[in-house]
Design brief:
heterotrimer, A alpha/beta (about 290), B alpha/beta (about 400), C alpha/beta (about 170), A: about 290 residues, alpha/beta, Rossmann fold, eight-stranded mixed beta sheet, 9 helices, B: about 400 residues, 2 domains, five-stranded mixed beta sheet, 13 helices, about 35% helix
Chain lengths: ~290, ~400, ~170
């Protein structure tokens, strides 16, 4: 979706201006899109947690969400569709001092990249994975994907989606993530605090952000504009501060039904890195 | 790093059936193990891969050896993940490698293309077996040569090296890393099953004896740095993740700052430079083996294991008084065209390779105008015998149509 | 000089390890050259198994063995498969208790009790090392010291003594 290029930047600088590639603004994101809110929250989280600027690394895939790399001023790698997580894996393992975030959309992370997600969670790789879930492939005009709700309309599900979607928090929990939260872009403060809390942690952390896509999903499913999609979330959001693992299946998303948000998983598990450090100690100790 | 919470056994390492633990000096190694040792010698400290015959021994060797030298081995969920994990590793400055065979090589094409586009140095080893598809997992092929040249979509220029012995696998793996670093590009080591599995003497010199090359690095301050502004050699100096340059790498067509510019104007600057960066630096990577070519009128062109049969064929032919010579491209891609053309006496060329005709297409393109070019091959599964090659050298010249 | 040696038997008999030890003996402990190749099948145990070593005083060009000079047969299946090669080979060794050879081949072959000798040492698993001892003695391709050194370096420390004993027993067959 192309941006309204004729809108000029205001002359006064935004407080985050130095953290953005400001010469490249405005973004390509559509009016009413929630991705900018998510990007702002992540930058806030980095700042609040005191992550040194040069240690911040964002890895994006392909899609609207992954465009974050062109606006957030960090070391930034715009990779291939679905491959954010294995790229981030190699990067983090070779320089563990970096703070690595894989930031991509629902189609990227869970359709073409689904296998990488479950294996990185299983290994408990030290990365933060942020999923912008707008229930469809927005950049290419609103095709159905792995999170499109059952029955929902899209350009490739013109009679209603015959498939069932993933419940992302449930998937992340089941495959081993140590931290799992879900917010909508309405929950700005909670989202910011979540990022401030988790960017410095170890282990495989997952944050799902339900995001309006007014020109595609919202329009096709008659939810309306970006504001109206936010109102839709406001009406249906149910906050649960901690969901027991036995309850996690109750966080499924269905059209018109309540949407459970909150921090669902927060647990300790040895990371791949911690375990591999001991492999190295054993290999060197026994053979030196 | 939190305190170790429990002492846990590391994963069982699938050791090679042969038990030995060489480091430097004279060894008796398989091509796969020599390749792994070459990688370690070159400074490779990150390997991401997925087991596949006949490349598995490279992974096994490195699973054992990398932690010994403080490196990391990680077995990924597939070859797609392996290929891109080594790119993530390389952008931090790590020398990284993966190894696979035909089916896995196919899966790597996507992110091999990304490596050409983002200009990330890394080494990819393909121990070729018979294909297509699952084909002949345990026997030899040289059928991925065109895939090495043209595999990923789009225009790019591949550097592909083919060793004919375990010693050469060791040396060429080091060369591959040096070239990858020097030119900021992926380099392919195109082995074959026989060279990968065969054992021979491999002499591993003391560290430092074989020179190692490091990639050109960013030296100017961040405000003066442009991620993709090339030097006079067309290679852009590289800033690493974590150095404070806020680098921007993308697989989209981009400008000198890495910003996506999806226009013809940007494409016609970037893509030809990626090609020329390789073609104009031939001295960096080109290697050739010549045997009795000075007076040769008939030339055998062969690489990898087939070059050894070809060498025998040349000797057998010489015994019969034939003026045969062997032209062995060690760097098969880009093909050493000028070197081939410089052999002025040649009127016939026999290209021997374990496929139904791949590198022969390039040889015919180069030498077709002045020499008869004949292909000798098979569809994979066995080495071409010296006698077969000799027979092709001796067969009468085809009548012109 | 170029000598082609083929070891053939079934998986698990140490066929490949035997070839490896010969190749290592030549490559690491003599100035000569050796190339070892092996056939691969999908089985890890059982099935037919063969490994070839080409030994030469110049660099080996093609490592492919088509007319072995020395043939070591450790199973009936291998013997049946390679009987014609055995007929043409200048030296044939076989395990007398496991392999029945055609009469003309049997006449010239060294039919020796590798497995039985190993059993006498208490460990059937070293039958291949008994064979290597006999092979070294009969073939005169590689000095005994080189073979012993390669054997010592290849086997685990805990089994070294047993293996050296087996090699010696084989050399005296």
């Amino acid at each position: 979706m192309t941006a309204n290029a004729e809108v000029a930047l205001p002359p006064e600088l935004h407080p985050y201006d130095h953290l953005l590639r400001s010469a490249d603004l405005p973004t390509i994101w559509c009016p009413g899109c929630g991705i900018g809110t998510a990007v702002g929250a992540l930058i806030y989280g980095f700042e609040q947690a005191g992550v040194p600027k040069e240690k911040r690394v964002i890895v994006g895939g392909i899609g609207c969400s992954s465009r974050i790399v062109f606006y957030a001023k960090t070391d930034a790698y715009h990779t291939t569709h679905g491959r954010t997580i294995p790229f981030a894996t190699g990067l983090k393992l070779c320089n563990p001092s970096l703070n690595v975030v894989a930031f991509a959309g629902d189609g990227d992370l869970f359709a073409i990249g689904g296998n990488h997600f479950i294996h990185a969670a299983r290994r408990n790789m030290d990365i933060l994975v942020v999923c912008i879930n707008n229930f469809n492939y927005g950049m290419t005009g609103g095709q159905g994907g792995p999170t499109t709700p059952a029955g929902a309309l899209s350009t490739t599900t013109p009679y209603g989606n015959p498939e069932f979607p993933f419940n992302l928090p449930n998937l992340a929990w089941a495959t081993g993530a140590t931290y799992v939260a879900r917010w909508t872009t309405l929950d700005v403060r909670r989202l910011r605090n979540t990022f401030a809390d988790v960017v410095n942690r170890h282990g495989f952390r997952f944050v799902e952000i339900l995001t309006p896509c007014p020109v595609s999903f919202g329009k096709t499913n008659k939810i309306g504009s970006g504001v109206e999609e936010m109102e839709y979330y406001q009406a249906l959001e149910v906050l649960k501060s901690r969901v027991e693992s036995t309850e996690i299946t109750k966080t499924d998303i269905e059209l018109g039904k309540p949407i459970v948000v909150g921090t669902f998983v927060d647990r300790e598990r040895e990371t791949f890195r911690e375990r591999y450090v001991r492999v190295v100690a054993k290999a060197r100790g026994s053979k030196s | 790093m939190s305190e170790a919470r429990s002492v846990t056994e590391p994963p069982n390492l699938i050791l090679s059936p042969v038990w030995d633990r060489p480091r430097t000096g004279t060894q008796f190694l398989s091509g796969d193990h020599a390749c792994a040792e070459g990688a370690l010698y070159a400074g490779c400290r990150f390997f991401a891969g997925y087991p596949i015959t006949p490349a598995t021994e490279i992974a096994e060797r490195l699973a054992e050896r990398l932690p010994e030298v403080g490196g990391q081995y990680i077995q990924m969920e597939d070859e797609i993940a392996s290929m891109i994990a080594i790119l993530g590793a390389s952008v931090t400055g790590a020398k990284s490698m993966t190894a696979t065979s035909g089916p896995g090589f196919s899966l790597m094409m996507e992110n091999l293309g990304l490596a050409y586009m983002m200009e990330v140095p890394t080494v990819v080893v393909d121990v070729q077996r018979g294909g297509p598809s699952t084909g002949l997992p345990t026997t030899v092929g040289q059928q991925d040569m065109m895939q090495a040249r043209f595999g990923p979509h789009g225009d790019f220029t591949s550097i592909s090296l083919s060793p004919q012995s375990p010693q050469e696998a060791f040396n060429l793996t080091i060369h591959a890393f040096n070239v990858a670093e020097r030119l900021r590009t992926p380099v392919l080591l195109m082995m074959d099953e026989v060279v990968g599995h065969m054992h021979e003497r491999v002499v591993i010199p003391p560290p430092g004896e074989i020179p190692l090359v490091a990639r050109p690095r960013a030296t100017v301050p961040p405000e003066e740095y442009h991620t993709y502004r090339p030097g006079p050699d067309l290679v852009p100096p590289m800033a690493l993740a974590g150095e404070g340059y806020s680098v921007l790498f993308t697989g989209l067509t981009h400008d000198e700052d890495g910003r996506p510019v999806t226009t013809y104007a940007a494409q016609k600057v970037l893509v030809p430079r990626l090609r020329d960066k390789i073609l104009k630096n031939r001295d960096v990577y080109e290697r050739l083996g010549l045997y009795k070519t000075e007076d040769a009128t008939t030339l055998v062109v062969a690489y990898g294991i087939t070059a050894r049969s070809a060498r025998r064929a040349v000797d057998l032919g010489r015994e019969k008084g034939l003026a045969l010579g062997l032209f062995r491209p060690i760097s098969v891609w880009p093909f050493p065209a000028e070197q081939l053309r410089s052999l002025k006496n040649v009127t016939k060329i026999v290209v021997a390779e374990i496929n139904l005709g791949q590198v022969v297409l390039e040889v015919r393109r180069i030498a077709g105008p002045y020499a008869e070019v004949v292909h000798v091959g098979n569809p994979g599964g066995q080495v071409i015998s010296p006698e077969t090659i000799l027979e092709a050298c001796m067969s009468p010249r085809r009548a012109k149509p | 000089m170029r000598k082609e040696v083929r070891f053939a038997g079934f998986g698990g008999q140490g066929v490949i390890l035997s070839a490896f030890i010969l190749g290592r003996a030549v490559s690491v402990h003599t100035p000569m050259h050796a190339t070892m190749t092996q056939s691969y099948g999908p089985e890890s145990r059982g099935g037919s198994c063969e490994a070839d070593v080409v030994v030469g005083d110049a660099e080996i060009d093609t490592p492919m063995v088509t007319h072995p000079d020395v043939l070591v047969l450790l199973s009936q299946e291998a013997a049946t498969k390679h009987m014609d090669q055995a007929r043409a080979a200048s030296l044939v060794l076989s395990d007398v208790d496991l392999v029945h050879l055609d009469d003309d081949v049997a006449q010239k072959a060294h039919q020796l009790p590798f497995t039985r000798t190993a059993d006498g040492l208490g460990r059937r698993i070293v039958a291949n090392v008994v064979m290597l001892g006999a092979f070294t003695n009969a073939s005169q391709i590689v000095p005994r010291e080189a073979m012993e050194a390669a054997l010592r370096e290849t086997v685990k420390a805990s089994t070294r003594e047993l293996n050296m004993k087996a090699f010696d027993a084989g050399a005296r067959l």
